[in-house]
Amino acid sequence: MSDTSPPDRAPEGGSAPRPPARRSIAFLDRLRRVLDRVLGVVCIVLFVALVAIVSWQVFTRQVLQNSAPWTQEAALYTFVVLALLGAALVFSERGHIAVEILVDKFPRPAQKIVAVLVQLLIVFFALFTFVAGGSRIAENAWGQAISTLPLTVGQVYLALPVAGVLITVYSLIHLARILSGEEAPTPTLDDTTEAV
């Protein structure tokens, strides 16, 4: 017989359900894992493509004595997209460089306040600079052709708002986890290496 009790009440004879806040954090954790996997695969594919492009460029230049003209721009734009998406992936792990020596000396409540402010600043910066600014740059460069590739510069620059949205999502996840007490205000080495 299936349980028809509302999710906020304990089922008869069962264990107590998780509170709504905990279910929300669990959902955010699943979302983060899915984004990490997808973004990780995309970054791996871009890195393999970058290595293949540069290898082909070296081969055609050194062995064939006639460098393939498209390889330089392809390598450049692949690297740009890889760097932006890779930076977003590192936000998932809170792995970017941070100077925390002063914040670590604060009492725990003050550390939490600083961590919340930092995440809010990251969200603001990502939305304002990457999403809004990147969208505008992509729009302005949409018609600018890349001479050796079947793309426009604007299409490549779409990586800016995409990275901005991803950074925003990751920062909001960290913000929710910090506020709920599920995540430490300052990441430890164990926190940043657990996904590896």
From TrEMBL:
It holds the Pfam family DctQ. The chain crosses the membrane at residues 38-59, 74-92, 113-134, 154-173. GO terms for cellular component: plasma membrane. It is found in: Cell inner membrane. One of its GO terms (molecular function) is transmembrane transporter activity. InterPro entries: DctQ, MFS_trans_sf, TRAP_DctQ. This is TRAP-type C4-dicarboxylate transport system, small permease component.
